[in-house]
Structure formats: C-alpha cells, structure tokens
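Appendix B, Record 12. Input sequence as logged:
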Amino acid sequence: MTLPVPTPGLVIRYAYLWGREADAGLEEGLKDRPCAVVIAHRDREGELQVYVLPVTHAEPGRDQAAIEIPRLVKQRLRLDGERSWVVVDEANLFAWPGPDIRPVPGDSKQGFAYGFLPPGFFRLVRDRFLALARSGKASATRRSE
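Logged structural output:
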C-alpha cells in the first residue's frame, strides 16, 4: 500500500496518543482511530511535520473543544453511523510518515486514508484549532519514532 500525501483535510487511520495518556507516561496510542490532518509543513531541516486531530465517539465534556462531524460527511468517509466529533483543542505532531499510521480496516483499496473532509467543514475545524492554539488553549503532543 502506498502512503498518501498528508494534505490538510485528509482523514487518516492513526494510533493517536491523547495528551492525558502522554502525561501518564505512555508513548503509544491505545487505539487506532480516524484523525484529520490539519497542518503539514516542512521544518528547517526539510522534514515534513504533520499535525493531526483525533476523531472520537465520546461526546465532548465542558472542558473539551470539539466539532461534531455531520452525518453526510461520515457517510462519505465510510465511517460508522454513530455520532462523532473532531477534537480541536489537542493534536499529535509527528514527522511524516511516522510509525503510527495504520491501514483502514476492512477495505484494502482505502489504504491508510478514509478520504477528505469537505473544504467548508475542514476550514471550520482548522480555524477553530488555530484560534485555540493562538490563545494557548490547544496543545500538541510531540510523537517520536
């Protein structure tokens, strides 16, 4: 399987490490899940750095910022029918491709990606994440290889 280009808006399968898991000393995510690529850029050394936001079925609590994924978007990405949210106040940051990208289960044609968020929905997610990051209310867990 060929790895996709990590274009912002792409939803990949990834072993996401929650900030609370990292704070507890874990180095590996406990669950593979869909994650949206929100930023991809080259660092000073030319290495491609990617920020991903997790998708979860857990309804956000009062202390968590998340945007519900519309049903039609979930259908287009071939995700399950349960309600889901993109969490926008925490991210994982890693050098692409990194060891934590996983194949989408059940459909070998999909490879490692579900598809793209629609442009308008992606802008909403990206802009909310960036606003929270600028205000110091979003965090990024740096992943290592």
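The first strand starts at residue 10 and ends at 16.
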